[in-house]
Each structure stands twice: as C-alpha cells, then as structure tokens.
Design brief:
Elements: E1 2-6, E2 9-11, E3 33-35, H1 37-51, E4 57-64, H2 69-78, E5 82-87, H3 94-108, E6 112-116, H4 127-135, E7 138-149, E8 152-159, E9 162-169, E10 172-176, H5 188-194, E11 199-202, H6 204-207, H7 235-244
Parallel strand pairs: 1-4, 1-6, 4-5, 5-11, 6-10, 7-10
Antiparallel strand pairs: 2-3, 7-8, 8-9
Residues 6-8, 36, 38-39, 42, 62-64, 94, 97, 115-116, 118-119, 122, 124-128 line the site of adenosine monophosphate.
Length: 249
Amino acid sequence: MKVLVAVKRVVDYNVKVRVKADNSGVDLANVKMSMNPFCEIAVEEAVRLKEKGVATEIVAVAVGPTAAQEQLRTALALGADRAILVETAEELNSLAVAKALKAIVDKEQPQLVILGKQAIDSDNNQTGQMLAALTGYAQGTFASKVEVAGDKLNVTREIDGGLQTVSLNLPAIVTTDLRLNEPRYASLPNIMKAKKKPLETVTPDALGVSTASTTKTVKVEAPAARSAGIKVKSVAELVEKLKNEAKVI
Ligand code: AMP
C-alpha cells in the first residue's frame, strides 16, 4: 500500500508568536520553524504501517516555500521513502493546499493519505476534509486508532462524549488526533541517510493548480493583555468584589 503524508511547515510550538506592527500577520523573521506536530503524528503512523508490512512506500508532501524542504527532510529522516515539494512563495488557504494535494494524489495514486487534523499556525482543520471532497475518497478524521482490515480501514475517532469507529473503503483519507501515537525522534544516522533520499520539486503551475486564494486576512491581533489578579483574604471579600467590582453576581 502506498501512503501519502502531508507535512506542513509551521512556527515551532515552543515559540511565543509576535504580531507584526502593521497587524498584517505573525512576524516570522528569525523564528524557529518546525513540522506541524499533528503531521509528525501522521508520519509516525505511516512509518508504523510500513514496519507492520502494510505500507510499501511512504511519500511525504509539503506545499510551501523552498524552506519547507527542511520539514520534508525531517519526514525522510523519520522513515518516509521520498518527498515532493509543491513550491510556492504565496500564502495559501486550505482549499488551495487541498487542490495541490489532489493533483499529487492523482499522480501518485496512494491507497491512503494521512494528514494532521489541524495546523497549529492557522488552526483551520479543513485540508483533510477538503481533500476528501475533491478526491471522493472516504475520510476518517480525528483518528486515535487506525487498523487495516483486509481491503478496509478501521478508524477510531475522538468525538464529543466518546469514541466512534468507522470502517472506510480504500483509498481513504485519515487525519490524526493527538492520541494516535507518540512520534519518534529522528536518529543521527537516519538524518544523514535522509540527505540522500529523493526530494522532487514541482510548481503549482506544472500541476495545473491555481493558488488564487478565496480568502484574505484582514487583520491579525494579539489577545488583549490580561490585568494582574489579586489575592482576597476571605470568602466574604470575594463575594463583595464579585458583586460590586466585577458585577457578575
Ligand atoms: P489545516 O486544515 O490547515 O488545519 O491543516 C490540516 C493538515 O493539512 C495539516 O496537519 C497537514 O497535514 C495538511 N496541510 C495543511 N497545509 C499544508 C501545506 N501547506 N503543506 C502540506 N500539508 C498541509
């Protein structure tokens, strides 16, 4: 089974993001960038399927700037066999990314596509679902367990109030939730080996994909600064403040 894994380059989750002075977006100058954590889980799941003998080839795909090669090299070090960068300097919305991924799916014909449930920069939670709509593939989102059962894929999903298991016909699309697995670290020998693995670059134009965005970011603002709290000496004082200062009771 060929598995395609979508990998996004995002601001590292440890970075405290700063908004640009003109409120046009987040300041990315000299900021550490990493693979989106949910994509790490997606790569890990594909590698585990390969270790079980279910997956035969893992292809990692990123849509983004030249620098996204770094995250593809990480995916290769973690166990992907080859990588494809759909290179563009434009900031793409989920639909444009899904269209680019659809073009790669058409070319590669994978049996399974694994994406993160959401990218931690834009929190869209849309790309997997949009790709499922464009390809007509079955989808299992927010997966906490994935099992291949013959020509079907059983996906256990985290939903409000519990777990739901769905059985999908292949080819299928899965998006990963936090508890699906715990991603491994890339070992130094594997990081070295990854440098020699194939990484192909294509443009959206060559794939016949339009990157024109249907949405525009109007403004990005930091959350309002919270004022410092105070310690009250008694319940009576707390009640008094809630009543007369906060006016919430
Ligand atoms: P989103 O819908 O933007 O929250 O992203 C959900 C998932 O879609 C991510 O975890 C990735 O697996 C995939 N994805 C989103 N944007 C990209 C991108 N530019 N390149 C590759 N994969 C992406």
